[in-house]
């Protein structure tokens, strides 16, 4: 192993792509140089590789010049020559690094495509390297292979951990990982296929297709369930990786194909990974597109200038390239090719407005758009999307916003949304940049607009302190479509955030009780550890919920989790909180005080996302029905389509009084900056005073007053396992008022589980269920009259607050 720190300054040039060409060729590459004698000399291209995430392509000519093409920024540049190269591949976890295998001492070089620096060199091969690939399930595993040996590299330590040596007559024709990374498959020149288990590198299967001679190439569907085999004999075999049996044997002579040099599946949008389009490079250098379901050749590519020597398909199937025998490279956009295939021959004679070179808008595009929208609507069926999710573990980044829109059934109420936007920035979020450090002015503007629309839609969202942190990650993902952003967040607040605001602005006692009960059922030891340290569900659950998991997960992990949350029932998000705690159990049990645990839930911690997601589904399916959140949650409810949005009513009216109290105190004492706790204390004192005035004026007895007070305390303490307050007759008014204020401010689901924890679990479950039952309308007539008087007082406050808002505007 060696490193090279030298790098050359690169110069980038503009790249121009063809706009929807007939044959699908968006770009043709050729490298011509002028010799010393003035004659032009063409250097042939030999290999190429795609990188789909940033839409890049790397191509190498026979001299060793490496060209990088960026289809996003429409630029290209040349790296310094590394000598003749035999294989290329982008590093999947560091997309600015290109792995290059050259013929000089058969070295493998890691090159930074932005700085041209060679950051790493690996040695170990004894013959030219023909194949480079990376495992999908172990990101630090790389496979390189020549015809005589294959080496598995562990890139954490830059060491070999497995070497496969061959013997003459059985040299490697092709070797690669299966898409999931579970198996390693090698195709040998003696017409055998060997399959190893990646974890143990033990041989699990050997395939010897007796009918197929001169085996040349194998290919896998994206889901890894089917393998295609072909060779110089006119035969194509489709093999099941699930049953280890052949599915089909197709005679290619029926299609005038005498033999095949190379095959590769072409992924298509929403095919679920079970690709049905197979590209075959025939012996006569034609590229055929073969539909393995209908058993038809739907298209053939045969450039007029030269035959095709090799082709490469991008991982997502968006592009493919053909390296011609004369050395040029034709780069195709797959969708353009397929559009051309689906267009009948007589479409060229239909009556449409002509397109000129200066105008790209044609009448013929509009019917295609309608057709595409109809097809996408069918493909966006929620059940089909869930199957894709369970198969791949996530939705593709390119289509995530479209898929989320479909899952959330957003109505696209442009009129209703514009009314909210026209109200301007809400006073509560006018100076939000002082609370958050947001470097992007565009992101800040979108965040302000979203929060203001939410606050105009429902006054509750103008007083919830955690809301900016909750919605911020959604702003980052969906800010290109503000309407979709608002409707998505509003739908999430309706569904995934059920019962969050029933005690607003105080913690959601019911939700935290559900989480605690689930944790008690599935991991009592972890709950005991929390209780021994005095850690409540406000720390290990509420902190995660209020930031929508954005503080504890990386960006990619967050996107994948919300793919699953939005694809499942509303209770899924609570199971995700419990799963995160259980999966991080080993790390949490090593923390020995409350401060350490609080810090743990405010930082990104390494997590196995597959284990994390798998545990969520286990909890979702194996949790007892009596404590399962779906028992208390309503089913999914989408926003109404129309000229206005339905009201959000899942919160107590008295919550708005806090905002009024906060506003009036700012006017009265501008010099004093009250904390949220002080404002809350003062507003609750006013509310309790009003309640006692009503009680003194009524004809109720002390007994009914005591009963009502005890009922309120029972609701507040419904999730506390070992606390039961027996209130006195209410003669000492000041003591009762002080105790009630303390109870409200401290109703944060504190747990005293230091003893009798098993009995606590039974009590907490029962108490929570009883508290939900106690909300049924069984109170006495006198209690109803008193509550009616309290509501009148609150309505007066709301009316006066609304009037003051209008006067300020």
Automatic annotation (TrEMBL):
Protein name per Swiss-Prot or TrEMBL: TBC1 domain family member 31
Function: Molecular adapter which is involved in cilium biogenesis. Part of a functional complex including OFD1 a centriolar protein involved in cilium assembly. Could regulate the cAMP-dependent phosphorylation of OFD1, and its subsequent ubiquitination by PJA2 which ultimately leads to its proteasomal degradation.
Entry keyword Phosphoprotein: no
Record-level GO BP terms: cilium assembly
Keyword Nuclease: no
UniProtKB keywords: Cell projection, Cilium biogenesis/degradation, Coiled coil, Cytoplasm, Cytoskeleton, Repeat, WD repeat
Subcellular location as annotated: Cytoplasm, Cytoskeleton, Cilium basal body; Cytoplasm, Cytoskeleton, Microtubule organizing center, Centrosome, Centriolar satellite
Coiled-coil ranges per UniProt: none
Pfam families: RabGAP-TBC
Stretches with biased composition (Basic and acidic residues): 766-775, 782-798
Biased composition (Low complexity): 711-729
Biased composition (Polar residues): 800-809
Source species of the chain: Euphydryas editha (Edith's checkerspot)
A cellular component annotation (GO) from this entry: ciliary basal body
Domain Rab-GAP TBC span(s) in chain numbering: 394-569
